[in-house]
Design brief:
The complex is a heterodimer of chains A (231) and B (415). Chain A has 231 residues and is of the alpha/beta class. Helix content of chain A is 34%, strand content 27%. The mean pLDDT of chain A is 89. Classes of the chains: A alpha/beta (231), B alpha+beta (415). At the A-B interface, helix 4 and helix 6 of A face helix 3 and helix 4 of B.
Chain lengths: 231, 415
């Protein structure tokens, strides 16, 4: 390990308050190096998605600390965390989460427009990214005119376009057949090779097998693969 | 007409003429452009397929194709790479050049096969080695594929400063790549068909040769029986006839000598019987016809010239030609083992039924041999022929110091 940590979680706790209190994360310690590709695996209900959401700033947590690329998420207000997220994080979800009324190119350029990049420059970079992923001919199609694999490639393009510190992917291949799964996984692996840090949650052992490290979770704890702090 | 009118008419005529010349020039420029871009398409559509089927070598056609692309789109370079055995290798380029082959994984092949005409940015992710040493040109990459299988890629390259290549070339490249895909697919199918035909021809030749050898072997066998009868039983019978004649003459003159000869006559008769029995055994052992392999092989092992055991697992009965082919192969293998395996070697015969086949295996603990050194002797050829005649196969596994294993299988007819 280089010791250049991009994700550093310490004693992370998350409790769901309801009729019964459920401790979803029971003191998680996890580090991810810059440029790593890490898979989080574990049985349903083990806390994988909760962990991903807390690390990525999509959800609040009840104890511990999360530092992303030197920024302490726990000390941020909701507002500044949202701003930080849109600037420094990329997301790929199982359900693609594309905006149905926008074309592929428009969906991809959203993160750039949110950062205040000019419309012309955003469009140029969006088209370049679609071309890179082999989707140039689909730039003007809306999501409902695209296949599942194409929609997920658009989602990956959107997650990557603003060169985020970390791309978080929650079951990115959960809705795809095996052939399309291979394409998406190859794509993530290749993006990782160009230096992109990627953390993904998956049920699919083939997907996990293509990453550099597998973090195994059970009952809100990490069984193995938490990574080493350099200090 | 007065002068001003003349000037006016002249001016009008000049404007008319100029506009006619201009519009015809524009039209001809457009014709040239359209005409040129048709060359590459026409080439792929018409020439490629038809010339391929007329037997023009693929390499020649690919060269012509990259030339046409090069000229049509004023490219700095046009390349055609073919994919074989998980490697992309440059098959033709204009201008001529060399590039190192690129290893492509099956995943990359499947992704490239399903891609559209794409840019260098695409290649940077999916076929990064294709960009090695190219600088930063304007580039279009058209995958050549058929039914999801990648056959190669066409790479069109033009210096950055040139006008956008994509808009002009993509449609044509797409069409050319598709036509080349169909052509390469056809050529590969043809080649596969040719290989199958060669294999069939080879098998037919082999079959004919094997038939010839079987006929020759049958002839030789008949001559051996004739010779054995002549040298063995016949000699005894002749001797017996002479002795019987002598006994007749001596009965009165020398009764004790006649009695002695009668004893000899009995011995001769039983010797002749033995000869005949063993001869008959060599032709078709009675035990094989009455009890099948399960009885005949253990008995053959007991009579074998080296220590041998037999294990015949409930194989049941089969047509006489199948049983005798297996039986004689085992016998031949035992004889080979006795001859070559060396002092103290033991042999084991195993026959079993599996997967619709009657299988057998003769292993010995002998010194083994290296088939590359010795080649196959007449014994093995004989075994192959016998098995081949009932559709069976034979393989030999041996290495110095490791003993020898001869394995055979005969397909059993469904019943």
């Amino acid at each position: 390990m280089t010791g250049d940590l991009i994700v550093d979680a310490h004693r992370l706790r998350k409790v769901y308050h309801g009729a019964d209190e459920v401790e979803a994360l029971r003191g998680i310690d996890l580090v991810v190096d810059r440029g790593e590709m890490v898979a989080i695996v574990g049985p349903s209900g083990s806390g994988k998605t909760t962990l991903l959401n807390c690390l990525a700033g999509l959800d609040t947590f009840d104890g511990g600390q999360v530092v992303i690329d030197g920024q302490d998420l726990s000390s941020m207000s909701d507002r500044s965390r949202t701003a930080y997220r849109s600037r420094n994080m990329g997301f790929v979800f199982q359900a693609f989460n594309l905006l149905p009324v926008l074309s592929a190119a428009e969906n991809v350029e959203i993160p750039l427009l949110l950062q205040g990049v000019g419309a012309r420059e955003s469009r140029r970079r969006s088209l370049d990214m679609l071309e890179t992923l082999g989707l140039a001919h689909r730039a003007n199609h809306r999501p409902d005119q695209l296949s599942g694999g194409e929609q997920q490639r658009v989602a990956v393009a959107r997650a990557l376009i603003h060169k985020p510190a970390v791309v978080w992917a929650d079951e990115p291949t959960g809705n795809l057949d095996s052939e399309v799964t291979n394409v998406i996984v190859e794509l993530l692996v290749r993006m990782n090779k160009t230096g992109q840090t990627i953390v993904l949650v998956t049920h699919n052992p083939q997907v996990a097998g293509r990453t550099q490290r597998t973090v195994r979770m059970r009952d809100g704890r990490i069984d193995s693969g938490a990574g080493l702090r350099a200090s | 007409m007065d002068a001003p009118t003349l000037i006016l008419v002249g001016l009008l005529a000049a404007i008319l003429l100029a506009s006619i010349i201009y519009s015809s020039a524009v039209a001809s420029a457009r014709r040239r452009h359209v005409g040129a871009s048709l060359t590459a398409i026409d080439f792929a559509r018409g020439s490629f397929a038809s010339q391929l089927s007329r037997g023009v070598p693929m390499h020649e056609l690919l060269l012509q194709l990259v030339e046409a692309l090069h000229d049509t789109f004023k490219l700095d370079s046009a390349e055609l790479w073919l994919c074989e055995n998980d490697r992309l290798a440059l098959a033709a380029s204009e201008p001529t050049g060399e590039r190192k082959p690129i290893a492509v994984t099956p995943a990359e092949q499947s992704i490239a096969a399903n891609a559209r005409v794409s840019s260098a940015a695409w290649a940077k992710v999916w076929l990064p080695e294709l960009l090695d040493g190219r600088g930063n040109p304007s580039m279009r990459i058209a995958p050549i594929s058929h039914s999801g299988q990648l056959f190669g890629v066409i790479v069109a390259e033009r210096a950055r400063k040139a006008a956008a290549l994509a808009a002009e070339a993509d449609e044509t490249l797409d069409e050319v790549a598709r036509e080349v895909g169909v052509g390469v697919n056809k050529a590969r199918l043809d080649a596969a068909l040719e290989r199958s035909l060669d294999q069939l021809r080879h098998q037919a030749d082999e079959l004919q040769a094997s038939r010839g050898r079987l006929v020759a072997a049958a002839d030789a066998e008949r001559r051996r029986i004739e010779r054995d009868l002549h040298d063995g039983a016949q000699q005894h019978l002749v001797a017996m006839a002479i002795k019987a004649k002598l006994i007749e003459q001596l009965t009165d003159k020398d009764p004790s000598r006649a009695l002695q000869l009668t004893h000899q006559l009995q011995q001769d008769a039983s010797a002749a019987l033995d000869e005949l029995r063993s001869l008959a055994h060599g032709i078709y052992p009675p035990l094989l016809s009455s009890g099948g392999l399960a009885e005949a092989l253990p008995s053959a092992c007991r009579r074998a010239p080296l220590t041998a055991s037999a294990e015949v697992d409930g194989v049941g009965r089969h047509p006489a030609e199948v049983e005798s082919a297996v039986y004689f192969c085992c016998l031949e293998a035992l004889q080979n083992a006795a001859k070559y395996a060396g002092e103290g070697a033991e042999a084991h015969v195993h026959v079993w039924k599996d997967d619709g086949k009657l299988r057998f295996e003769i292993t010995d603990t002998g010194s083994g041999f290296d088939a590359r050194d010795t080649g196959e002797g007449a014994g093995l050829t004989n075994m192959r022929d016998r098995l081949g005649a009932v559709g069976g196969t034979l393989e030999i596994e041996s290495a110095r110091g490791k003993g020898t294993c001869i394995r055979g299988a005969v397909p059993l007819a469904e019943r």
